[in-house]
Amino acid sequence: MTAMNSGIRGASNRARWSGDGARRAPARSDLRADDNEQGERLASALGWFSIGPGLTQLVAPRGLARFIGVSDDDRNCTLMRLLGLRELTCGVGILTRPRPSGWVWARVAGDAMDLALLGSALTSDSTEKDRVAAATMAVVGVTALDVYDAARLSQSAGPSVTSWLGGPIEVRKSITIKRSPEEVYRFWHDFENLPRFMRHLESVQVIDERRSHWKARGPAGKTVEWDAEIVDDRPNELIAWRSLEGADVSNSGSVRFVKAPGGRGTEVHVQLSYNPPGGAIGAKLAKLFGREPGQQVAIDLLHLKQLMETGEIILSDGGLDGTLMVQRPAQPLPGGAGR
After folding, report:
1. Residue 15, SS3?
2. Is the pTM above the cut of 0.70?
3. For 119-176, how does the pLDDT look when each residue is reduced to its tens digit (9 = 90+)?
4. How far apart are CA 116 and CA 136, in angstroms?
5. Is 35 contained in some domain?
6. Sequence-distant (≥ 6) Cβ neighbours of residue 45 within 8 angstroms
7. Which residues is 212 bridged to in the sheet?
């Protein structure tokens, strides 16, 4: 059975400050990004909560059956274990996928099954009606939460159904940088700059005007390589690329540069899609980039923002991924972007 986890972390404060210290209203893109992050946090909490009851149903099905007011006979214990396995599967699916809307919808389907079983128990003469009714109310509450989060994730550009079923992993993130679209486009278009702010990349070697060779750190310290080609290039607006045949990691992506309202610089919108080594199981167990892909891309964009605005990436002991980090020395940017 499912119920709400009270340990949901609070959403981060996304409000920014203008140069004179006055608080300004967040831009629409900021609000959208904040809403996406809150949906992901709620999904993460639901994932961990799926694992908790799932383990209980597998390990102590008789005790849980008595707790909700139904018989602890062999038939109900077998059913409890099957429901527990379902909960564990949903929990792992949610925790190992970026924007796991499909797995949250799977929780909704599980909630519907639980409600049907509890409804049947309410009509039985061999159950404790008060306990069954209390369990039913708890599941109704969690069902509402699951539906809310699944709909929220589905509306915020999450992965397709094929992604959560084991297809390509898709990530979409945005950030606002206080530089012109021309400056940010020019810096990104030199692909050899990418390893300066993308920690998983070892190098990018430009072959010609459209092709480049990429090296990245994969699972267990393994290096993965691929050739990529630019498939769309609109100066100061868009760069899109895809890997070529024979790539260790089949991938594609795009980055859009949109002039931010109010003279605030440039909104950078990144979309990535890739098939991790080992397929969906490899993604769950190893995580190609060493952490949840959406978080890694968000960190990379934050590093890009720091690099473009200040000329350096500011890191500290106990970095965002739990590793020991030091501040990198300032490095000049092409065209004076860091001044």
Report:
1. coil
2. no
3. 989 888 889 999 999 999 999 999 998 888 887 776 654 444 444 445 567 889 999 9
4. 10
5. yes
6. 5, 7, 8, 9
7. 206, 228
Distance CA 123, CA 125 (A): 7
Q: Are 153 and 104 in contact (CB under 8 A)?
A: yes
Q: Find out whether 198 and 192 touch, Cβ atoms under 8 Å.
A: no
Instruction: From residue 56, give the alpha-carbon distance in Å to each of 64, 125, 133, 192, 282.
Output: 7, 26, 20, 51, 27
Q: How many helices (H) and strands (E) does the chain have?
A: 9, 7
* C-alpha dist (Å) from residue 101 to 31, 36, 190, 251, 323: 19, 11, 35, 21, 29
Q: Which of 112, 129, 163 represents a domain boundary (last residue)?
A: 163
Number of domains in the chain: 2
Query: Under a CB-based contact definition with an 8 Å cutoff, are residues 280 and 163 in contact?
Result: no
Q: Is residue 23 part of a domain?
A: no
Helix axes 28-59, 74-95, angle to 10 degrees: 150
Q: Please name which of 263, 266, 224 lies closest in space to residue 246, comparing C-alpha atoms.
A: 224
Q: Are 118 and 135 in contact (CB under 8 A)?
A: yes
Confidence tier at 318 by pLDDT (50, 70, 90): very low
Q: Which of 182, 169, 180, 189 is nearest to 232 (CA)?
A: 189
Domain annotation covers residue 16: no
